[in-house]
Amino acid sequence: MTAHTATSGIAHxxxxxxxxxxxxxxxxxxxxxxxxxxxxxxxxxxxxxxxxYVSTWLYAGAALxxxxxxxxxxxxxxxxxxxxxxxxxxxxxxxxxxxxxxxxPLPRDLRRNGGDGGFFGxxxxxxxxxVGWRSTLYSFIRLPWxxxxxxITLCALFVGWPVLGHLARGMTNADRAMVRGLLSPSSELExxxxxxxxxRGVVVDTAAADLRRIERDLHDGAQARLVALxxxxxxxxxxxxxxxxxxxxxxGEAHGEVKLALQxxxxxxxxIHPAILTDRGLDAALSSVAARCTVPVKVAVDxxxxxxxxxxxxxxxxxxxxxxxxxxxxxxxxxxxQLWRRGDRLLIQVRDDxxxxxxxxxxxxxxxxxxxxxxxxxLFVVDxxxxxxxxxxxxxxxxxxxxxxx
Length: 406
Prior knowledge:
By secondary structure, the protein is α+β, with helices and mostly antiparallel strands. The chain folds into three domains: 31-186, no CATH class; 200-272, Up-down Bundle (Single alpha-helices involved in coiled-coils or other helix-helix interfaces); 276-397, Heat Shock Protein 90 (2-Layer Sandwich), CATH 3.30.565. Helices cover 66% and strands 9% of the residues.
């Protein structure tokens, strides 16, 4: 009993010194390696889920493709494959440090992507989605790779511990390559095509809105006046013999209506494409617009030649609408307009000393201008702090005017 007590006392006295001499506990690998190991062990369950999902909807959709539910089933399956791709990108981002941008979502307005805006538009747009098909391919080929990486990693954890880090790094580099190759956004060409399709939709929508405005102006303005003019002349014709004085008075009123109708038609034609722009170019056309502005405007146009008519028209209507905004909202005392060419770009700057606070928020006229310029690969920037001044800068691609055929 005594000997046991003495031995215990010696051990107790030596304990703290022995603990001080023990090396600190360290993990064999860093956090990055352990994240890679976790990713490789998760490959198998993730691959099983993805493979079963893809195999099921592909087989069912192909088998039912001769029926009315086959193609919609394929479309729904592709949308689910997109979600699987998003999950895999998130896993790679958290465990492998792979920063892959999210692909653009399917357009909400399917008419902008070749559809008709209804069920068949949705079906066609979804079935030709390259992101969904690449995600499907990724899920399909991952099963054998998931089995292989899971087995190697599990064996290395218990048998090949010294080489686990090297194995994990090599296999996860292959995973990184697959994520970047199959789950990244579309190629630059595909992305540009999608942007052009969306811009085409903006142009079509803008053109449709312009046509509706022209139709409304014609119906409510010149057409109504011409109808009233015809009725007035008909009544005057009936009174020529009975009451010449009243007929003459009615003819005089009809003459005034003709003048007003002509003025409205001129204003409408100017809103479509002013003759002065066609005949004399931007300098003269913008000077004419500035003369009608309620604020004194200086116009400086420094262009070596006239751009293509489409670019010239967009530049004209951009400045025209900006000057209208200055007249209505800015409370400015002065404004100036500058146009010049820099390389292959046409630059526009409109400045006023008003109260500022202008914004391209959704629904404003400036937002519409930004969309219109974006549809032709242009830029639109508004710098308008509260209190002013406001500086609007726009850029358009320079396109040379094609000589008219002789």
